[in-house]
Amino acid sequence: MKHRIATTVLIGIAATAAATAPAAAQNITAPPAPVPAGIKVDAIKVHGASLEGNLEGNSADRNVLVVLPPSYGKEKARRYPVVYFLHGFSIDAQNFANYLHVPEAVSHAAGKGAEFIVVVPDTDTKQGGSMYSSSVTTGDFEGFIAKDLVAHIDKNYRTIARREGRGLAGHSMGGYGTWKIGMRYPQMWSSIYAMSACCISARTETVESAQKLASVPFAAASKADFGTRAGLASAVAWSPAPDKPPYFADFPIKDGALDDTVLAQWAANSPLAMVPQYVPALKSFKAIGSDVGDKDGLVKDDTAIHEALTRFSVKHDWQVYPGNHVSGIAQRFDTVVLPFFASHLTMR
């Protein structure tokens, strides 16, 4: 199997677990993905009540791609498992699905006897990404994914509308969202898979880096470097402040010193910090998978959550493979992630 993927494309790395993040292309585009015969792709809008009234003004009506397997239009009485896939920072759902060649992967899985509906929601925001968090500033994207989106898909498509028929996965910021939403809404998913998850450990700042972040003019935020944009997205998601326009966020600096209260709010959104509190939720999953490339700057953090799960006797699949943050992720989605869900979701 070969995927023709432009080598110059970089998926949003969003390595916001560190005070500085690697530079990367922004406003990423990928060429349209081939759609094999028998595969149907619906581009729909899903209204999120969870997102209404957010202070950034992000739309509560989200673009969502729904990829349907070959038999969907023929076997009218059949119901299908659903894999929800969360995209990374600084890229939208359409371009991420193009990059991942989702229609081809769904076709390949069907050829092996595993037919899925794959759903890719768009969670782009004013600062480049929702961080899949619950914030009055950006909107409650945790609730949007786990409640609004699932309810809409179950109502409008022939799904296996129960936990055993749902899987949650994502890459980078989406991998972070997989851990976080999985732990907070375990009743919704049978199995989860995090690819190259960012933001695993609590984000830290120095006085200098915090001052730099807080001093970015609001009008210039969209043109800032990748690491700064990721920092701004983290602040509006994790330390929202409805009384502090225009960002509507608290920054971790106060009177020339680090603000421990804001840093504590950020730490509360760290999956590594969450693990000890959510052991029963994690143990309730039928299966957990996680991976990262050995040359990925996130390998240390992703290894840390693997070690935390091991410490608390949470069974999970874990792999460090040869590669960087983006190399081979389309192939791994096709040959690792979907087969993982084929093994663990109720297929009929």
Q: How are the SSEs ordered, and which strands pair?
A:
Elements: E1 40-47, E2 61-68, E3 82-86, H1 93-100, H2 102-111, E4 117-121, E5 134-135, E6 139-140, H3 141-156, E7 166-171, H4 173-184, E8 191-195, H5 207-214, H6 226-238, E9 253-254, E10 257-258, H7 260-267, H8 271-274, H9 279-283, E11 287-293, H10 299-311, E12 317-321, H11 329-344
Parallel strand pairs: 3-4, 3-7, 7-8, 8-11, 11-12
Antiparallel strand pairs: 1-2, 2-4, 5-6, 9-10
Helix pairs in contact: 2-11
What would your notes on this structure say?
The protein is α/β, with parallel strands linked by helices and 348 residues long. It has a domain at 40-206 and 271-344: Rossmann fold. It is built from eleven helices and twelve strands. The chain has helices at residues 93-100, 102-111, 141-156, 173-184, 207-214, 226-238, 260-267, 271-274, 279-283, 299-311, 329-344; strands spanning 40-47, 61-68, 82-86, 117-121, 134-135, 139-140, 166-171, 191-195, 253-254, 257-258, 287-293, 317-321. The strands form three sheets. An eight-stranded mixed β-sheet has the order 1-2-4-3-7-8-11-12, with helices on both faces. Helix 4 links the parallel strand 7 (166-171) and strand 8. Helix 2 (102-111) crosses helix 11 (329-344). It is globular and about 65 Å long. The relative contact order is 0.17. Residues 1-27 have low confidence and may be disordered.
